[in-house]
Design brief:
Layout lengths: L1 H18 L2 E4 L4 H14 L4 E7 L5 H13 L7 E5 L6 H4 L5 H20 L3 E3 L12 H9 L4 H4 L4 H11 L24 H16 L5 E6 L2 E6 L12 H12 L3 E4 L11 H5 L4
Parallel strand pairs: 1-2, 1-4, 2-3, 6-7
Antiparallel strand pairs: 5-6
């Protein structure tokens, strides 16, 4: 197992060395962090730029985290770039179809290609991994159309392997819970608005402050459906935490506050798609 992973790492490094100067779409998640770190080590920090897109669908603290993390793993400070993306001005994105992510990624990657041209970089990279090739990922179509390179996926590196490699490299976020964009908490077909995104952000921020780790607050108009790791669900009924959550989420604007007994799972909004049902 370790030999196979080592071979994939060498394949990854060799591929990066072929690319020369690169721009990495950097979200602060473990996938893009690993590709950024290996790119810096393989190409030299003067040949690598990291770009983070700022919009209403990103938690404020995540944007700040990206800048700090990039510096910590060796990115040249001048090569960290924040850009404002405007996906909410796109009616196709705002309508929240099942391929919503395509419109967001298309805008982001288009902007990254412009930056790559301005700094003399030949390629834009993303953090897609081998597992993503078998999941519902409309953003992959945008990457393919625009020629974005996905070195982790090319090397066949899975999410589990990424965490193992990141841990061995000493990356500080190797076990950081995944944080998808806030729009992913809204059911397909329900319009994405700044108000909804702000409600989701504040609700998740509050629940996380109580000690819960991996979670999602799914926005069903008047109802908040909370997904927690199953082992953490019983904690709701200690020290009055459930009552505190209900009170705070009603202040935020929800009428009903529920707990999903299936627990946290990535991409739960895709379950109707996977069943072939209505969205």
């Amino acid at each position: 197992m370790q030999v196979a992973t080592d071979n994939k790492i060498e394949q990854l490094r060799s591929r990066l060395k072929e690319l020369g100067k690169v721009v990495v779409g950097f979200s602060g998640g473990i996938d893009s962090t690993l590709i950024l770190k290996v790119a810096i080590d393989s190409l030299g920090k003067e040949n690598v730029w990291a770009v983070t897109g700022d919009s209403e669908s990103l938690l404020r603290e995540e944007l700040e985290y990206c800048g700090k993390l990039g510096k910590e793993i060796g990115l040249a400070p001048a090569n960290f770039i924040e850009i404002q993306t405007n996906e909410l001005s796109n009616p196709n994105y705002k309508a929240n179809p099942i391929d919503r992510c395509f419109y967001c990624k298309h805008e982001l990657f288009s902007r990254l290609l412009e930056i790559a041209k301005s700094v003399g970089a030949s390629y834009v990279l993303d953090g897609s991994n081998a597992d993503d090739l078998h999941d519902w990922r409309p953003g992959r179509r945008a990457a393919g159309e625009l020629g974005v390179v996905s070195p982790l996926a090319e090397a066949g590196i899975t999410k589990a392997e990424i965490r193992d490699i990141a841990r061995n490299l000493g990356l500080p976020n190797w076990d950081k819970p995944a944080l998808a964009c806030l729009s992913s908490r809204i059911p397909y077909g329900s319009v994405v608005t700044v108000k909804k995104l702000a409600q989701i952000a504040e609700a998740e921020r509050f629940i996380r402050s109580l000690g819960f780790t991996q979670l999602r607050v799914r926005h069903h108009d008047e109802m908040a459906r909370i997904e927690l790791i199953k082992d953490e669900i019983p904690l709701l009924y200690k020290d009055g935490l459930a009552d505190r959550i209900v009170e705070r989420l009603k202040q935020i604007g929800f009428t009903y506050v529920t707990i999903d007994l299936q627990g946290y799972r990535s991409g739960s909004m895709n379950e109707n798609i996977n069943k072939g049902g209505d969205t």
